Amino acid sequence: MNRFRGMTRRQVVTAAVLGTAGAMATGTPAFGAARTERTAQPWRDTAKSPDWRTDSLLSALTHDEKVILVTAVEVADTKPLEHLGIPAMTRVDASDGLRGDTGVTAFPAPNALAATFDTALAEEYGRAIGAEARAKGWNVLLGPTLDIDRDPRHGREAESYGEDPLVNGAMGAAVAKGFQKNHVIAQLKHFTVYNQEDGRNSLDVRVCERALREVYYPAFEQAIREGGALSVMGSYPKVNGVYACENEHIITALKKDLGLKGYLGTDYFPSGDRVEEFKAGVDSGALVPDTPKEAFSDGRIPEERTHDAARRILYALFASGAFDHPLPAPADVVTTPEHQALARVAGEQATVLLKNRGGILPLSRRKTVAVIGPAGKDAITGVEGSSYVAPGDFTTAVDAIKARTRADRVLVAQGSYGDVALPVIPEAVFTTPDGQPGLHAEFFAGEAFGGDPIATTTTPNVDFRDGNPVDGLPAQWSARWTGTLTPPTTGLVRFSTLLSGAARLVVDGATVFDGSRALWDFFFAPQEYTLGGVTRLTAGTPVEITVEYSTKDVGFNGPSVKLCWQPDSLIPEAVEAAKRADVAVVFVNNFAGEGVDRDNLSLPGDQDQLIEAVAAANPDTVVVLNTSGPMLMPWLDKVKGVLQSWYQGAATGTSIARVLYGDTEPGGRLPVTFPADEEQGPSRYTGPKSGGVGGTITYDEGIYVGYKWYDEHHQKPLFPFGFGLSYTSFAYDRLRVEGIDLADGRDAASVRVELRNTGRRTGSDVVQVYIGHLPTRTATPERQLAGFARVSLKAGERETVKVEIDRRRLSYWDESTSRWITPTGRVPVYVGCSAADIKLAGSITVK
Fold first, then answer.
1. CA 48, CA 53: separation in Å to the nearest integer?
2. How confident is the model over 440-460, as pLDDT tens digits?
3. DSSP per-residue codes, 737-778
4. Which of 33, 281, 611, 684 stands 20 to 30 A from 644 (CA)?
5. Residues 336-388: pLDDT tens digits?
């Protein structure tokens, strides 16, 4: 989030590089100059520790210079600090690449990376992004994101590493470590309980302390202690009644208990009071230009708080190496063949094989294949919003599949446009109740369509944006459009809307869609977020149509609604292609991202109907889910194969084609549980969606998030956490467990298991170690992940796999004493390949 007013991104970076040239030119000064400089400014001595150098420089700062350091927003703000060698801090969103830049690598989304369960790969992923960031002139990377996936409808679900704290922590630590190997600062986000977009700026999350400690804090602690992350970004919501960036309780825990030695910054313009944020422990106002600088001198912000904030920022600069390594002049192109190959490998290892009946995959190159759905440049490559990275000229799935077989063996049919905005419905198909072209519109005071209309008119269609469609409407209003619609074709008709507000469409007596949006489109990305549905109509037969709209949930851009459609279904063409092919591969997708949560877990538009029709025409059908996360699959029993590909950035197309044809394996395992229906999972938010209207959600599930919720409620999901099939097979044997003896200081248990590849080809498996109920009267999860290891084996090869389990995994947070307790006794231990598929069981003894 780089918002330097009046400057382009390149100007910002160039200013940061050139503006510090006088003080930082040096990087490698002449010997005599270097010795003089170290004497005059001893903090430049790289032989000293970051702590020593921080204290040395801090003692040289005036109060005004400390204020500049902690409040600087734009590059020019830091100019008074140049003589001290303090570099300008330039920031870029970097969860899966550099948002807003060109000539960079768009990597697979973070939840795709999580599906690899490969921390070594994650570190390489982070190292590559960090290298590109430095080459573009950025030294603070806003990421990785460690928000727990509490609800799969969260618009930003794909930005983090799944529902489990251990996986989030391990992957996040690896990415942060990779970032910072490039002398940049990793800023973890978002601390904490940022688990939805609806109402995010004013939402009050009610959550118990134990859940904070066991579910929402651990990933941050692991990324700080193991990954060395030097900064954290505070989140938007309130936590138990107090905004996160003003919440001294959680900030104290972050710095004292979770080990943050670096600094805490805010997200961009969080709700709340800037003075209270700094008093509570925020250290940097870099994303809040409205911080009152006079508050640091008039007594509202204590001097010791200013001193501590400045120290933490300086420590991050020294410890990361950003202080000693001036940024280069920004390059136009920083992606490399190696980084593109890394993105492809990550995409391959992230792809999860969910179903493979009859061994339909991998595909034979000798068979004809119908490629159906958005599998070209219309594929979705990344998370919309702050993590969106333009993929550049990527290879599409259609082209990659043609390259794996022969072009004449590939039949291409669109079938569906996927999750995309449609054209507005034209006036020509509408007729008002009195026989005129268009629709009859009535406008009402209030949002409930009550009383007499305050205005009536005839409109050609329903289409207005960022304001009221007629004059004289109050702040809150509602409207109803009525008439008939005469379709030009027979078949499945797709309707959708783009809106800010609430809308309902009724066609021929049936509700086609009914929902609301705070925003029309996403932040920082090219796509728009539709709401829609389908119905069957007959050409030339008029049907009654009613459109209702209200300002409920309107976002900051104002009232907007556009009624759109696709009258000509593409499904019949896809069915014909499927009939002529040996196998059909159907690509489907959904958009998701910052600012808007998903309404449900269904595929948008006509995509479910497309799969059903293709599967009926060709029993050898494979579905590729190019989605942000879990989807309902009403057609699952009718298809032979299902692949979850997530969002794959620049790898979109190349990686999935290689998996389809067996050039590589589908190496992914699910980092999130796939629900079987809309009712499964923790409680859902039903309050206001607009960020400016306060709402409340209570996390009444406590510590039982993700697969733990399913165990606690005895529910069976569609696919369990950790699930993923392979092109080969594995056997587990010889479980050995070494316990913990607290008296001897041994605080890590170990689990060993022999893994054998019993198939005919090389493949990998993720050995997952879970622990059961702890030996205490306090309720603990039936099963929770305590460790994992990704192992690759050749056909027939075996390996003894060791997974260490640290003491924290065998402990629980006791709210009465505010401390971690490790109960002694025997703890069940389970080894398997998912939370629901346990191969071996034993126990860990804690003495």
1. 6
2. 999 999 999 999 999 999 999
3. EE-BBGGGTB-EEEEEEEEEE-SSS-EEEEEEEEE---SSSS
4. 684
5. 999 999 999 999 999 999 999 999 999 999 999 999 999 999 999 999 999 99
Q: DSSP states of 549-581 as a string?
A: EE-TT--TT--EEEEEEE-S-SHHHHHHHHHHS
User: What is the number of other CB atoms lying within 10 angstroms of the CB of residue 515?
Assistant: 16
Sheet of 837-846, strand order = 784-793, 763-771, 825-834, 837-846
Place of tokens 């410890």: 319
Asked whether the beta carbons of 640 and 726 are under 8 A apart, the reply is: no
Question: Tokens representing 568?
Answer: 């000509």
- Helix 607-617 × helix 571-580 angle, to 10°: 30
* Tally of residues, the chain: 847
Pairing of strands 439-445, 641-644: unpaired
Place of tokens 């204590």: 302
Q: With a threshold of 0.85, does the pTM exceed it?
A: yes
Contact between residue 498 and residue 529 where contact means Cβ atoms under 8 Å apart: yes
**What are the structural domains of the chain?**
9-320 (3.20.20.300), 346-417+571-672 (3.40.50.1700), 427-566 (2.60.120.260), 728-846 (2.60.40.10)
> For residue 715, which of 672, 676, 670 has the smallest C-alpha distance?
676
d(Cα 39, Cα 741) in Å, to the nearest integer? 51
Cα–Cα distance, 817 to 720 (Å, whole number) = 35
Query: At 470, is the secondary structure helix, strand, or coil?
Result: coil
Virtual torsion, Cα 319, 323, 329, 331, nearest 10 deg: 10
Listed in sequence order, the DSSP H helices in 351-467 are: 397-404
Amino acid 672 reads V
Secondary structure class of 843 (helix, strand, coil): strand
Quickly tell me which residue has 């688990």 as its tokens. Answer: 195
Helices (H), 148-269: 165-180, 209-211, 218-225, 248-252
Cα angle value 594/598/602 (rounded, 5°): 140
Query: Whole-angstrom Cα distance, residue 787 to residue 750?
Result: 10
Give the integer Cα–Cα distance in Å for 808 and 289.
40
Sequence-distant (6+) residues with CB within 8 A of 610 are 372, 373, 415, 416, 571, 574, 586, 588
Going by C-beta distance under 8 Å and a sequence separation of 6 or more, which residues neighbour residue 109?
95, 96, 158, 159, 382, 383, 387, 628, 646, 647, 648, 649
The mean pLDDT of the chain is 94
